[in-house]
Amino acid sequence: MVVPRNSLRGFLSQAKAALRTALDSNEKITFVIGNESADLDSMTCSVLYAYLRSMAPPCNAFSQLYVPVTNIPSSGIQLRPEFLALFRHANIEPSHLITLDDLPDLSVIQSKLRPENTKWILVDHNSLQGKLGKVYASRVGGVIDHHEDEGNVPTDTGDEPRRIEKCGSCTSLVTEYCRQAWDSLSTSATSSGATAGQGGDLSSDDAVTTIWDAQAAQLGLASILIDTANLQSKGKTTEHDTQAAEYLEAKINSCPKLSSSFDRSSFYSEIDSARRDIGGLKLQDILRKDYKQWDQGDQILGVSAVVKAIDFMQEKARDEADTQSLDGAYLEALQRFSMERDLDLYAVMTTSTSSAGDFQRELLVWAFNEEAVSAAKKFADNAREELGLEDWHGSVGKTEAHDDNKQWLKVWWQRQVQHSRKRVAPLLREAMKCKSHSGGWAT
Ligand SMILES: [Mn+2]
């Protein structure tokens, strides 16, 4: 099956239908999957890579079609208002996105979707986690990522990329990788004439493909801007990001319909305000909205990233629990979240703006058993300087009940604000590793 030049909307519908057929008839299929937090970056780089790669596959592609999977059930889309805001620019609906709900149920996935019929390209992570990882880890055959290399993707990935580089947004690396293919697609579409499938007011095939390109370009640009604070964050923005953003912006500007009205900064503000608009969500949903989990030896680590300060969550917890106790209600909510996931160690990282307008971060770490307590304390010692950990103002975690060898809870200001979960999670995992290697005994 040749994948025709298409809009994002048309491509996603086709991919969803093709996935159903492939499952029914045991056909080979290539998945492009982002990480389990399913943030904007993960979603856009899987969609963009699958979109461009399907229309311009390498000669020996495992399958013609690349299916982008957003690594959450479809109910998770509603927790991400920034997805909904961006979809309008890309002319797609939530129902177009392919999610875990489109894969067979995890309890029977191995028989319904045989590993040998699949190939997995990882974007925005480099180690397939969870149940999918248990079944399909050996079928990973390509990666584009900007996290620390965990060494789990084979060195030779043949015709698929193996690119792991530090930069603000993984979507920048995907854009960079697909740039040539995209340019030649646009050129050949212009010369051969793509089929107009929509937009009755368009005068030529050329205009149709420039709109398609501009829609896909906005999808990619949104993540790069969100991940680099509109290219203004010095600590995060790299050459990869500025170049990719420039390239995508040019695609938007070469679309006559958008060029006069598109403004990068207002586009950024629109998506960013949508992302921060979490007031309507329940606290448990806020905690799982941008959540990642790792198995570290026999211990489980969970880390939630939240775009509001702890104060905000405390009030939310109090309102939901209908009590007067800020700390009590909040801690009960965190504990419930951790227990449901069997966590040994749980961390919550917040980002917010101070009254003076400064970007700030808080870090909460809660260890629930002896082994985790020792790892958490080791983390605090090792990371204090690098992360700029400073005592927090509030009373959370300052009671005796939260400081013994059975559990340990601590909240800090993280003054080195350039460090996101990309750095904090490896530091936590490192501290957990030391412990499990020594088995708790001095060696
Ligand atoms: Mn990312």
TrEMBL record:
GO CC annotation: cytoplasm
Pfam families (alphabetical): DHH (PF01368), DHHA2 (PF02833)
Cofactors (names): Mn(2+)
GO molecular function: exopolyphosphatase activity; metal ion binding
Domain DHHA2: 268-432
Keywords (A to Z) from UniProt: Hydrolase, Manganese, Metal-binding
Protein name as it appears in the record: DHH phosphoesterase
Organism: Polyplosphaeria fusca
